[in-house]
UniProtKB/TrEMBL annotation, chain A:
The lineage of its organism: Bacteria, Pseudomonadati, Pseudomonadota, Gammaproteobacteria, Oceanospirillales. Keywords: ATP-binding, CBS domain, Nucleotide-binding, Transport. SMART domains: AAA. Belongs to the ABC transporter superfamily. Residues 300-353 form the CBS domain. One of its GO terms (molecular function) is ATP binding. This is Osmoprotectant transport system ATP-binding protein. PANTHER family: GLYCINE BETAINE UPTAKE SYSTEM ATP-BINDING PROTEIN YEHX, OSMOPROTECTANT IMPORT ATP-BINDING PROTEIN OSMV.
From TrEMBL, chain B:
It is found in: Cell membrane. It is a multi-pass membrane protein. The chain crosses the membrane at residues 62-83, 104-123, 129-153, 174-198, 218-239. This is Osmoprotectant transport system permease protein. Residues 58-239 form the ABC transmembrane type-1 domain. GO terms for cellular component: plasma membrane. PANTHER family: GLYCINE BETAINE UPTAKE SYSTEM PERMEASE PROTEIN YEHW, GLYCINE BETAINE/L-PROLINE TRANSPORT SYSTEM PERMEASE PROTEIN PROW. It comes from the Bacteria. SUPFAM superfamilies: MetI-like (SSF161098). Pfam families: BPD_transp_1. One of its GO terms (biological process) is transmembrane transport. Keywords: Membrane, Transmembrane, Transmembrane helix, Transport. Its main location: membrane.
Length: 353, 250
């Protein structure tokens, strides 16, 4: 748990961080967002005391951070930054092992931990363990940076625009991995970004800052549906507000019962019907295309236009539009049909909790 | 500490081995070349310098270089470290100009000043060589520490390294290649400059050169100069290898 109480930073006569109070509970994914220069990095760097606060208190669990010896504090807090800052004269394994080394873990435990983390971030141990930073791709280097931050199993992870410098494709992958790691480790994370889509995708709570002040601190869905003021509204952006909303909703919330071809319900309901093979995998959709003739209403099911329960509704909608169907099959891990999501559902229905 | 060993062509290693062998042979068996020098300079009565053995002269020469370089490096790296710490930053211009003065001051002039104070022999030579070799070490220490990426420093602090750990584990290893390059220049310069020690009675490979110049014996000059030159080249190649060991990526 991290709690900021009236946190303030003043440089000369310029108040850069102005009386910020907020709490990121244990296991939460908190995101600090706001326009460039609004004080996000300064706030983050006051938490691990890279910058001394002018006023206010920061609590890490029950401890006031200023009461702890500074190096000891920092070893309890993982820190990952956009420029990564890997040590160029150390191998990947040595970079990841640095904090456990500082904490004097036994060698065997450090080696185990390095392998475990490399596995967690899909870094090929055999190939990359002894490589040097200059031999890594941008995405690999950033993974190593985050792995290093997590190495000593810190209570809290601070991240300052860690994916800001990688290409959009890699960024998506890294975001997915971070979400997975967060679900797996339940670390408390404070993550800085200026990208609303990234914040919406990752955050369990978003703190929106403007000129050093905390404007709104809420769950993403509330930020979208109940913006505190015009600044929040304009920062979220009106143009694709609907899509942003759907990016915080999941297929399982909209999932409906799928009707099988030939079942009793098929004849009585006007909806779509599905053919499945012996293992329960959907093979063909009947109906579901607007303005199509009857013979075109048999659509073969492919992997690309099915949905999984943990997919965002934004992505599901995007697939419906791209493949021009009114419905997607929802499949489980084995590819079996477990339900459907429909365009009507997206439009009409409030999501179940 | 492990460092990246990059594979480079090794023809220079062969060069180093053969030049080292040549140096050792000449130091030990210069005497055997007496017929050669006699043939080249038939007018000379003594074609090979014999007052001291070349082995003794070489060891004396190396001692001068070693002692002065050890002092230059300790003082130079220390000063470079000091002015790159937060507490010493304001002294940087002063230290840089002092070191520059040390090098622009001709060693012969240093000898002229120090001899009346410290007498003849070893000590004034060491003072002159130390001052002369200081600048490249100071400059390269400052420059080398300046090449450490700020992101690595920020990460090192954020991770919880103490200042000493940051210096020992991050800054120095990363600056090492450039610092060694400075030491290399300093040592090479001093191998050449140490010869002037012989003018104030510090025995070195300069002794046969001076004797040759005074006694009009060109063979003595050549014998001293060839050994000094070989010594400088061999040291240079050794330093080059050392620098390569501290190269990480690009
Ligand atoms: N050392 C400093 N002295 C004066 N102003 C600073 C200093 N560091 C940052 N600032 C100012 O504080 C503001 C917030 O900076 P920062 O926290 O880095 O913003 P961001 O939200 O982009 O991360 C900026 O306007 C910046 O110019
Ligand atoms: Mg910033």
């Amino acid at each position: 748990m991290i709690e900021l109480q009236g946190l303030t930073k003043i440089y000369g006569d310029k108040t850069v961080v102005d009386d910020i109070s907020l709490r990121v509970d244990s296991g939460e994914f908190g995101v600090l967002i706001g326009p460039s220069g609004c004080g996000k990095s300064t706030t983050l760097r006051m938490i691990n005391r890279l910058i001394p606060a002018t006023h206010g208190r920061i609590l890490l669990g029950d401890d006031d951070v200023t009461q702890l010896p500074v190096e000891q504090l920092r070893r309890r807090i993982g820190y990952a930054i956009q420029s990564i800052g890997l040590f160029p004269h150390w191998s990947v394994a040595e970079n990841i092992a640095v904090v456990p080394g500082l904490l004097k873990w036994p060698k065997s435990r450090i080696d185990e931990r390095v392998d475990e983390l490399m596995g967690l971030f899909h870094l090929d141990v055999g190939e990359l363990r002894d490589k040097y930073p200059h031999q890594l791709s941008g995405g690999q280097a950033q993974r190593v940076g985050v792995a290093r931050a997590l190495a000593a199993d810190p209570e809290v992870l601070l991240m300052d625009e860690p994916f800001g410098a990688v290409d959009p494709l890699t960024r998506e992958v890294l975001q997915d991995e971070l979400l997975r790691v967060h679900q797996h480790t339940r670390k408390t994370i404070v993550f800085v970004t200026h990208d609303m889509d990234e914040a919406l995708k990752l955050a369990s709570r978003i703190a929106l800052l403007n000129t050093g002040r905390l404007v709104q601190y809420d769950r993403p869905i509330e930020l979208l549906t109940r913006p505190a003021d015009d600044f929040v509204r304009s920062f979220i952006g009106k143009a694709d507000l609907g899509l942003k909303l759907l990016s915080r909703r999941w297929v399982h919330q909209y999932q409906q019962h799928a009707t099988l071809q030939g079942s009793p319900a098929a004849s009585t309901q006007a909806g779509y019907t599905w053919e499945v093979d012996a293992t329960g995998r959907p093979t063909c959709l009947h109906g579901g295309r607007l303005h199509a003739e009857d013979r075109q209403q048999h659509t073969e099911v492919t992997q690309e236009w099915s949905a999984t329960p943990d997919m965002t509704m934004k992505e599901a909608l995007s697939r419906m539009v791209w493949f021009r169907v009114m419905v997607l099959p929802v499949i489980d891990g084995e590819g079996r049909l477990i339900g459907e999501v429909t365009m009507h559902g997206v439009m009409g229905q409030q999501p179940c909790a | 500490m492990r460092v990246a060993a990059l594979k480079r062509p090794t023809s220079r290693d062969g060069l180093l081995a053969s030049l080292s062998a040549l140096l050792v042979l000449l130091v030990l068996f210069m005497e055997e070349l007496a017929p050669l020098f006699q043939a080249l300079f038939p007018e000379l009565g003594n074609p090979v310098y014999r007052r001291e053995s070349f082995l003794q002269l070489t060891l004396d020469h190396l001692l001068l270089v070693l002692v002065s370089s050890l002092i230059s490096v300790s003082v130079g790296v220390g000063a470079g470290l000091f002015v790159t710490r937060r507490s010493g930053r304001e002294f940087e211009p002063m230290v840089s100009s002092l070191a520059a003065i040390g090098q622009t001051f001709p060693p012969a002039a240093v000898l002229a000043i120090v001899v009346p104070l410290a007498g003849f022999g070893f000590v004034p030579t060491i003072v002159a060589l130390t001052l002369y070799g200081l600048l490249p070490v100071v400059q390269n220490t400052i420059a080398g520490l300046g090449t450490v990426p700020p992101a690595a420093l920020e990460a090192a602090r954020g991770i919880g390294m103490t200042r000493g750990q940051i210096l020992r584990r991050v800054e120095l290893p990363m600056a090492m290649r450039v610092i060694i390059a400075g030491v290399r220049v300093s040592v090479i310069i001093n191998i050449g400059t140490a010869t002037i020690g012989s003018t104030v009675g510090a025995q070195s490979l300069g002794t046969p050169i001076i004797a040759g110049l005074v006694g009009n014996n060109i063979a003595y000059v050549i014998q001293g100069a060839v050994l000094v030159g070989l010594l400088a080249i061999v040291s240079d190649l050794i330093f080059e290898r050392l620098e390569r060991r501290f190269t990480f990526g690009d």
